[in-house]
Amino acid sequence: MQKNQMAPWLQPLWESLDFANFPNAILLHGQSGIGKFAFSVELAKALLCENSNAAIKPCNQCEACHWFDTGNHPDFISLVPETHRKLMPHADYEADESPKRGKAARDDDGDSGEKKEKKNISIEETRHAIENLSIGSHRGGNRVILIYPLEMLRTDSANTLLKSLEEPPANTIFILLADRVDRVLPTIRSRCRLLAAPRPDRAQGLAWLKTQLNKIDDLKVNDVDVETIYDEQGGAPFSVLNSLIARRNKDEKDELTISIQASRYLLQSMAQGAVINWLDTAEKTHKAQYGFLLASMQRWISDLQSVTQGGGPRYYPKHITTLQGLSKAVNVQRMLQFWKSLVQARRHENHPLANRIQLEALLSQYQQIFGS
Length: 372
Fold this sequence. Notes:
By secondary structure, the protein is of the alpha/beta class. It has three domains: 3-106 and 114-196, P-loop containing nucleotide triphosphate hydrolases (Rossmann fold, 3-Layer(aba) Sandwich); 202-251; 266-372, Up-down Bundle (Zinc Finger, Delta Prime, domain 3), CATH 1.20.272. It has helices at residues 11-15, 36-48, 63-69, 103-107, 123-131, 155-166, 186-189, 202-214, 223-232, 237-248, 255-270, 278-285, 290-308, 320-327, 332-347, 355-367, and strands at residues 25-29, 76-79, 143-147, 172-178, 193-196. The protein has a five-stranded parallel beta sheet, with helices on both faces. Helix 5 (123-131) runs parallel beside helix 6, helix 12 packs antiparallel against helix 16 and helix 13 packs across helix 14. The longest helix has 19 residues, at 290-308. The relative contact order is 0.10. The model is unreliable at 92-117 (pLDDT under 50).
């Protein structure tokens, strides 16, 4: 991503950065799907750029920039789960060749075609990356480590990272990203400069999204559908773009596509209020990302609360008639208790629990918020 292609709502954040006095660790946090990852990759490139003029970093002309673009810069380390490695810089290869990847990415290789991609960063990868920090940088400049999503680090990996943040090696910069900063260890947060990534307003986000969609061949989607999906995704343009691309490619195994389809079924069921078939709904949605489903449920209840109090829906404006009908039958106290249950569930959404059982319990509780 060239600097002038950066998401416009993140441009002010970029312009606020002081590359001449950059901290040794930043924690970039904000809603998933708003462009934080692309921003951080561009930031890593800028910090490794060897152009002497800080005002035009990254220059996209120096040797360091070229190495970075091909995924071969020796002083760039990325700790991301397998599900995100396709988003990292890599060389363009012919279709019958495989892109080269860094050591951390190669260590788990094998017959990966049939393996399910891992969502966590292993302690082995973390230790390997951090143990090598004692060695000087290859090109004599900065070394950059990008870690995402930070809240998905296991406790042992987080403790390993913490030790390096407490005594950072010379010329080493950590770019840490989190969708949920409240789930990052306070000891890690306290050793980083926090940067909040803003979400675009609806008009700006939709304008950017439609511009990107117009650049993609064979992707036919009308504006009404785009706006509906945008609202359902909580105003996250990058998530919407990726989901529409996956739909165009008919990638039925794409995790985001599965989650969006399940979320839509979930919302159709929740729209039924007291007559929801919660067992059937849990059965047909539990294979999707649990956190994604919880977020959809939170947005639905947030809109229901707003409508109950005489306001309008923020996330699902097209369902206002349904929400108004449900609001007349809702027990406000039970709805608030259900909201607390959702908040509690989100704190443990990445634990290896039985998702189906958790969903059944929540949807059963949802059914009970209607009636006296």
